[in-house]
Write a structure and sequence with these properties.
Layout (H helix, E strand, L loop, with lengths): L2 E4 L11 H11 L10 E4 L7 E4 L8 H5 L5 E3 L5 E3 L9 H5 L6 E3 L4 E3 L6 H5 L6 E4 L3
Antiparallel strand pairs: 1-8, 2-3, 4-5, 6-7
């Protein structure tokens, strides 16, 4: 059964960015947080709460709909899968993502798409992120 990331406990987040570093390291072989599929930010300054921009696993993903090359295909359980060989780097998927969860690798000219591997949730030291099993 497919799994998806959820951010229901972000009130516990201290902004350590461990989730971002782990994601970039495991999925992109790069430890720059700019290469992460998850993005942590504040809602308005140092005294504010942290929020996570992460793929919401849409069942009818707009990012796949606008992809002119067919590089993004719907994934079982929600979200999309990226075929980097078909991607032309047009960035339409970034603009179409309502969650603002698609990053972009300027070096490779490809989007950074979450495939819900769960590494961010597994290594979050405060349990802010969880991995849920969903039905197809």
């Amino acid at each position: 059964m497919p799994k998806v990331i959820r951010t229901d406990e972000m009130n516990k987040c201290i902004g350590c960015f461990t989730c971002m570093q782990v994601c970039a390291g495991i999925n992109r072989s790069d430890h720059s947080i700019r290469k992460s599929c998850i993005h942590i930010r504040t809602t308005g300054g140092l005294a504010s709460q942290f929020v996570a921009s992460v793929c919401r696993a849409c069942l009818d993903p707009h990012c796949a709909e606008v992809c002119p090359s067919g590089a993004l295909t719907p994934r079982k359980g929600g979200g999309v899968l990226l075929d980097p060989h078909r991607c032309i780097g047009c960035r339409r998927c970034r603009k179409a993502c309502m969650a603002h969860a698609i990053g972009f690798d300027n070096e490779k000219q490809k989007p950074i798409i979450c495939h819900h591997c769960g590494s961010c949730a597994k290594y979050c030291p405060h349990g802010c992120l969880t991995m849920l099993t969903v039905s197809d």
